[in-house]
Amino acid sequence: MKLTGLLSRNKEALPGITGIARVDRRTRELLRRVGPGDVAVLDQIDLDRVTADALVQAGVAAVVNASPSISGRFPNLGPEILVSAGIPLLDRVGGEILHSVKDGGRVRVHEDAVYVGDRKVGTGNVQTPESVADQMIEAKAGMSTQLEAFSANTIEFLRRERTLILDGVGVPELRLPIRDRHVLVVAPGNGHADDLRRLKKYIAEHHPVLVGVDAGADTLCAHGYEPDIIVGDPYGIEADSLKSGGEVVVPAQPDGHAPGVERIQDLGIGAVTFPASGNSEDLALLLADAHDASLVVTVGFQATLQEFLDHGRSGSNPSTFLTRLKLGTKLVDGKAVATLHRSRVSIGAVVLLVLAAIVVVVAALLVSDVGDVYLDGARDAWQSFTSWVKGLFT
Fold first, then answer.
1. Burial 54-66 (b: 16+ CB within 10 A, else e)
2. CB within 8 A of 78, min separation 6: which ones?
3. Long-range pairs for 147-154 at CB < 8 Å and ≥24 separation?
4. Three-point CA angle 164, 168, 172, nearest 5°
5. Which of 109, 178, 216, 258 has the lowest tally of Cβ within 10 angstroms?
6. Could you give the domains of the chain?
7. Tens-digit pLDDT profile for residues 109-157
8. 342/94: higher pLDDT
């Protein structure tokens, strides 16, 4: 009995959140492996929206960040998304946590500490909605410095990629003709699935070329569409989407090396590479523009200044800015297109409008002298008709 009591006490649940640790300094690699109930252990200053959205979608139980999730340089969006989703965020734990916690091992997060078994391996700051809001207010003061750095990076990027941006040099050829067609580019940004759903009427009416960027290709397939073109790292896209029949464009480094080609070869499908330093979203837009699309509609792209400066995209922000500047008026946000299609007058509304007009005309005739003339004529005609019918039977 005493031994049973000891075993029972040892099996009592410890406080906090326990899960399998997924540890990686490379956030992109971590996001590929993390799953429901896992504890994500990463090292990312200024946690961005893209990473936070991916962690929420993966269903992680908690996030442990070795670095400050909000450094104060600018108001990044990731921490707010995590805490709003109810996912505990512990940051400023220190780089040692990446060595103290083994990938695939069990880890427990309780209050401001991280435990492996009963051993405390790190402590940090617990982020709450209140603490995130306070830090975001302070971080807004850093936006001017960030904009100055962005301007310098834009000039440097233009020097490096001016032939691509200005002349389209290096854009791969496509089998599918795009000239004078609408192109719908779907990226895995915030709310992209809902925005795509709202564009159902637009897609049915205009039959645009469907371009899936990274996991945006999976979203297109999940909604019953077959992407015509897929742009992105094949390791972040489902095999069924890659095999759906669309052309695959794999981003490559400026020297031509494309790590994602190995997955394409393993799946036995063809692909072309696109050497450039921009991100997948920008490459998709440049593809559409270089092949003379008449209109490019975007879904899941960042829209606000805060999203534009978010750290997760800062490395490619110069290309993002210049790409949108190059496309100019042919680039339209999907939300605007969906709003315009919702505001169109339906056939039912037209019928109701005509019926209402008829009622108004009849009512006007009834209360006017002209109406009396028509009514008197109608009575005379009716009396003549009834007299004729009676005469047939007499």
1. bbbebebbbbbbb
2. 46, 47, 48, 49, 51, 52, 69, 310, 312
3. 147/309, 150/309, 150/314, 150/317, 150/318, 150/321, 153/317, 153/318, 154/317, 154/318, 154/321, 154/322
4. 100
5. 258
6. 2-127 (3.20.19.10), 141-342 (no CATH), 348-392 (no CATH)
7. 999 999 999 899 999 999 999 999 999 888 877 666 667 766 777 777 7
8. 94
